[in-house]
Design brief:
Keywords: FAD, Flavoprotein, Oxidoreductase, Signal. The chain is about 35% helix and about 20% strand. The chain has 19 helices and 20 strands. The strands form four sheets. Strands 12, 13, 14, 15, 16, 17, 18, 19 and 20 form a nine-stranded antiparallel sheet that branches. A five-stranded antiparallel sheet has the order 5-6-10-8-9. Strand 5 and strand 6 form a beta hairpin. The protein starts with 7 loop residues before the first helix and ends with a helix.
Length: about 550
C-alpha cells in the first residue's frame, strides 16, 4: 500500500509546527531547548547529533522537531543511554532489532497528538509501545522512525464511586491488579504480569474472569482516543463516537491511539485459587478428559478458568501437558475441579494466591530476550478427539525443532465458551465478528521460543506447516473455524480478514476517522486492515516472501 498523498491537514500541521516549535533544521534552537532541559554544552550537541547522524531524511526532521519542542527529558537519540534501555525493554529479541531514529516518552494525550501530527507532517513512520510484549519485529517498534513509549502514561485512578478505573496505556497488568487490590476490586484484564493494557485490550483480551464477564474489550466503559487529525475524543457506546468505541473492541491499533482506558471494576477479594499442574505422557488422556469436563460444565460455575498446553522439554525430549487452573474465589475444593483433582500430576503449584502473584507466575516461563513466534488457529469444539489430535500434531512438529538451541515448542488450548460469547454482546458488541452461534470453539496458540536468528527460517517454516496441518485436520473433521485471535497471531496471518463481515465495517470506520490512512501507512506495525486482494498468498508463501525480502 502506498503512502498517502499530502493532504490539506498535512499542510495545516506543517504550518502549526512552524509556529509552535523551533525550526527542526536550526541546530541552535534545538540545542537551546536541550539546554533548557538541563543538558548543556557538548552533551547537548552530542544528543542532537545522535538524532541527526548520517541522515537528512524526514524522520531526522521529525525527531529534531520533537526534541526542540519537548527536550531531552522526553526525546532520546541513539547515543543516549535511555535509548538502549528502551530497546532492551522489548520482550522478544525480534522487537529489539528495529533501529528507531528516536525514542519519545509522552506524558499526556496532547503530547501523543503532537507526535502524530509531527509524524504526518514529515511522513515519518511511528509505533506506540504499551508493554512491549508483542513478538514480531515492528509490532510496536518503528525502524528508522519514532518509537513512542507509554511508560510515563501508566496512571491508575478510581472514579469517586469506584465503579470505573481510569488507566493509562503504559500500565502493566501486575501494577493494575496490585493497585485495585488495595480497594478489593479488579477488572477484566490480562493474565501475564508484564503485558501492557494497550495491546491486550484492543486485541480482545482473554482473562481469568472471561467466563463471568466476557473479554477485556467487553468491559471498557469508554476510551480516550487520539485520532489521525490530532483530535482527542472520548468514545463510548452511546456517544457520537459509538462506532469508534465498537472498532476499538478488537480492532487493534487501526483507528486511533488510546491514551486512557476506562474499565469497569467489580468486587474481588485479596485472594483466589490458581496455578499450574504438570503431567507426563501416562496422564495425558485423563488430563484431556478433565479439561473437557470443565469446558462442558462452565455454565454451572463460570468462576472457573482453565487452559491446557502440550509442550516438549527439548533438553531431554520429555513430552508434557501443563494445565493452568484458576477459580475467582479462594476455594480449593470447587466441585468443577473434581475431574482435575483425580489426575496425578508430577508438579502441582495450585494454591490460594493473589491475582498479582498468579500473573507473575505465568510470566516466569517466558523470559525476555528470546526469539519468539506466535501463531493461532481456531477449531470448533466438537469432541475430545480433536484435542488428542492437537497433542499429536504438537509433538510431531515440535520434534522437528528439538535440536535448536533454547527451543521451547508448545501448543496452548483454550475454550471460547458460550458465556464468553454472550458477554461479547454487551454495549453494542465488539469487532471480533463472533456470535453465540459460533460457540463453543477452541482458540489455539502455537508458540515457539529460541535463541539464534540463524534458526528463524526453519522455525517459521515449521510453524507454518503446523498451522496448515491443523487447518487440514479441522476441515477433515468438520470442525474448521475462521477466527484468528489477534493477540496470538503471527505477522503472516490475516487477522482482520478472519472477522468476516466485521472486517468491512472496521475498514469503513477507519476510513471515516482516518481518510488519509495514517494508521495504516505511517504506523504499519502489527495487524492492519489489509484489503482482500492482499490476502491471496497462502501462509507459507508469505513466509518465503518475507525471507526473500529480508535477505535480498
Amino acid at each position: 500500500m502506498r503512502l498517502p498523498s499530502v493532504s490539506v491537514f498535512a499542510a495545516i500541521a506543517l504550518t502549526t509546527l512552524a509556529e509552535t516549535t523551533p525550526d527542526p533544521s536550526d541546530t541552535k534552537n534545538s540545542s537551546q531547548a536541550i539546554v533548557a532541559d538541563g543538558i548543556e554544552g557538548d552533551d547537548a550537541a552530542k544528543l542532537l547529533e545522535s538524532i541527526q547522524a548520517n541522515s537528512t531524511d524526514s524522520c531526522q526532521t521529525a525527531c529534531a522537531s520533537l526534541l526542540g519542542e519537548f527536550g531531552a527529558a522526553k526525546v532520546a537519540g541513539s547515543e543516549d543511554p535511555d535509548y538502549k534501555a528502551a530497546i532492551d525493554g522489548f520482550w522478544s529479541q525480534q522487537q529489539r532489532e528495529p533501529v528507531p531514529r528516536c525514542i519519545f516518552r509522552p506524558e499526556t494525550a496532547q503530547e501523543v497528538a503532537n507526535v502524530v501530527r509531527v509524524s504526518q507532517a514529515n511522513k515519518c513512520r511511528f509505533a506506540f509501545r504499551s508493554g512491549g510484549h508483542a513478538q514480531f519485529a515492528g509490532s510496536s517498534s518503528a525502524d528508522g522512525g519514532i518509537t513512542v513509549l507509554f511508560e510515563r502514561m501508566a496512571g491508575i485512578t478510581l472514579s469517586e464511586d469506584k465503579k470505573i478505573a481510569s488507566i493509562g496505556p503504559g500500565a502493566l497488568w501486575s501494577d493494575i491488579y496490585g493497585s485495585l487490590a488495595e480497594h478489593n476490586l479488579a477488572v477484566v484484564g490480562g493474565r501475564v504480569a508484564d503485558i501492557g493494557i494497550g495491546g491486550l485490550v484492543t486485541g480482545g483480551g482473554i482473562s481469568y474472569f472471561s467466563n463471568q464477564r466476557g473479554w477485556a474489550c467487553d468491559n471498557v466503559a469508554s476510551y480516550e482516543v487520539v485520532l489521525a487529525d490530532g483530535r482527542i475524543v472520548i468514545a463510548t457506546p452511546d456517544s457520537e463516537y459509538s462506532d469508534l468505541y465498537w472498532a476499538l473492541r478488537g480492532g487493534g491499533n487501526n483507528v486511533g491511539i488510546v491514551t486512557q482506558f476506562n474499565l469497569e471494576t467489580f468486587a474481588h477479594g485479596p485472594l483466589m485459587y490458581g496455578g499450574d499442574r504438570v503431567f507426563t505422557n501416562e496422564s495425558f488422556s485423563a488430563a484431556i478428559d478433565a479439561f473437557v469436563d470443565v469446558a462442558k460444565n462452565i455454565d454451572k460455575d463460570p468462576k472457573v478458568a482453565q487452559f491446557l498446553s502440550f509442550a516438549i522439554d527439548t533438553r531431554n525430549g520429555m513430552r508434557l501437558a501443563v494445565a493452568e487452573l484458576q477459580y475467582s474465589e479462594p476455594k480449593t475444593d470447587a466441585a468443577i475441579f473434581d475431574g482435575w483433582n483425580k489426575v496425578p500430576a508430577v508438579v502441582d503449584n495450585t494454591k490460594i494466591n493473589s491475582l498479582v502473584n498468579l500473573t507473575l507466575a505465568l510470566a516466569a516461563p517466558s523470559p525476555r530476550g528470546m526469539r519468539q513466534s506466535y501463531w493461532t488457529v481456531s477449531v470448533k469444539f466438537t469432541d475430545r478427539e480433536i484435542i488428542d489430535r492437537l497433542a499429536d500434531i504438537t509433538f510431531e512438529f515440535g520434534d522437528k525443532l528439538s535440536h535448536i538451541p533454547g527451543m521451547v515448542p508448545a501448543q496452548t488450548i483454550q475454550v471460547v465458551t458460550d458465556p464468553q460469547l454472550k458477554n461479547m454482546e454487551k454495549n453494542g458488541g465488539n469487532a471480533l465478528g463472533l456470535s453465540a452461534s459460533d460457540g463453543p470453539f477452541l482458540v489455539l496458540l502455537q508458540s515457539f521460543a529460541w535463541m539464534n536468528a540463524e534458526d528463524d527460517e526453519l522455525v517459521l517454516k515449521t510453524a507454518a506447516d503446523m498451522v496448515a496441518q491443523i487447518k487440514k485436520m479441522s476441515k477433515d473433521m468438520g470442525a474448521d473455524h475462521d477466527f484468528l485471535y489477534m493477540n496470538y497471531a503471527s505477522q503472516f496471518q490475516d487477522v482482520v480478514a478472519s472477522y468476516g463481515e466485521s472486517a468491512k465495517k472496521l475498514r469503513d470506520i477507519a476510513r471515516k476517522y482516518d481518510p488519509e490512512g495514517v494508521f495504516q501507512t505511517l504506523q504499519p506495525g502489527y495487524h492492519k486492515l489489509n484489503e482482500p486482494e492482499s490476502q491471496e498468498l497462502p501462509v507459507w508463501d508469505r513466509v518465503k516472501a518475507f525471507f526473500n525480502e529480508k535477505f535480498a
